[in-house]
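Good day; I would like, with your permission, to put a structural problem before you. What I wish to show you is a protein chain and, alongside it, a tokenised description of its three-dimensional fold. Please examine both parts with care and let me know of anything in them that strikes you as inconsistent. Thank you for your consideration; the sequence and its tokens are set out here:

***
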Amino acid sequence: MNAGDRHPNTQRLEPEEFRRLKSEFLAGVNDEFRTPLTGIVGMTDLLLETRLDARQRDYVLAARRCAEETLEHLGSLLEFAALVAGHLRLEESDFDLQEVLQSVVADLGPSARERGVRLFMTLARPLPNPVVGDAVRLRQILVQLLANAIKFTPAGEIELTATWTRLSPGSFRLQIVLRDTGIGIPADQLLLVFESFRQGDSGLTRKYSGLGLGLALVQELVHLMHGEVTAESSPGEGAVLTFWIPLLLSDAGDPPETRP
């Protein structure tokens, strides 16, 4: 009798069975970690509504920030795992494209201002509205890119520029360019920024916390939406992140202007 006969559970799993078990495991991780972390955030919110002295308030706020950061890392890790496993599917619905872009910039604005960084959006011409696509995934891409830019921009500004090009009577290509005045990326590290669990130079990992999943998650989401993402940068000169995705025009809206 060989080892496999004595311990049948140690035999190699079929790929489909392995994917099923991994999916169940990730779902369990999500519940087991996210639920108590969310509870911590909720309880600290309640605690902040009570009478606290200045030192106690600082401690509670620090605990809340730690819990929120852990939740963010957990969400990125689970989202990336789901993408790699092919478990995420796009949802198509009508949405206001310009409203999505403006809301993301508004939501990330306070984080930028805390660092003394100006965050703003530029539109060369009005965007088609409404459009058809996955607004949740588009918003997720924008949040990841802006959060990453804010993280690596100690001073200056971050500009989000949105342009579009007609592909067919019923579709167009949205292009987003994100320019920052941050620390920049060495040329030999540019190819690494979209790899999972990498932050280019290992020194960045020590100085800037994180799993190194932000841009890897962006690339997976952009590819899921049938688009492409690229990066250009030089040390001390900031960075330019560009991505484009195709979107459909909604029947509910007026036809957009024709590009000259």
Observations:
- The longest helix spans residues 15-48.
- The chain has a mean pLDDT of 80.
- The first strand starts at residue 93 and ends at 95.
- The two ends are 77 Å apart (CA to CA).
